[in-house]
Amino acid sequence: GGSYTAQKISFSPAGRDFKTLGFTAGYQYNQYFSLETRFSKGTSGNTYDYTVVGFEDEEAGEKTDIDYQALILIKASYPLSEKFNVYATTGYAQTQIERKVLDPMLNSMTGVNQSTFTSTEKGLTYGLGADYKVTNNVSLFVEYQTLPDWKPVSSVSHNWDSINLGFNYAF
Question: Is 109 helix (H, G, I), strand (E, B) or coil?
């Protein structure tokens, strides 16, 4: 299957919004239980431009985006009708976030004005969703998911949620 995800990390003042595109592969054991793996890549990111004192004429800023996100999930479904299911997921998520900083002051100190930093967040994920069978092989789904808290530094933790829209093909 495939999915489009809108994710939000909540913190003051505005938080961060990310979008990802991904694919799903899994195995459905019966109408109630399945195992899924998901892999996605960031498509939007956050861009923040700023001015460095003493370097007002030079470009400065940062861009943060999801480098990759991988999940392994257990999915428990309950059929409400022949075509409509509700479900819950739980599992493990790992996300690598990449932050690129363009700073002319770095150039004056190090000779390089762009630095790349990565951080990896991992842990428990869980969610609720619903899917609708369009045909015997194709279903559409919508899902709310809570991801492991984002911890840019050890003393700070921020909530991380997502809304997933997608399709699955069963064969």
Answer: helix
Structural contact between residues 36 and 23, judged by C-beta atoms closer than 8 angstroms: no
User: pLDDT digits over 21-53, tens only?
Assistant: 999 999 999 999 999 999 999 998 776 666 666
Tokens of 81: 């009708």
Sort strands 61-79 and 158-169 into parallel, antiparallel or unpaired: unpaired
Peptide bond into 13 cis (omega under 30): yes
Specify the pTM.
0.82
Total count of residues recorded for the chain: 171
> In DSSP terms, which residues pair with 86 in a beta bridge?
78, 130
Distance between CA atoms of 91 and 146, rounded to whole angstroms?
11
Residue 54 CA from chain centroid, whole number: 37
Beta-bridge partner residues of 139: 133, 168
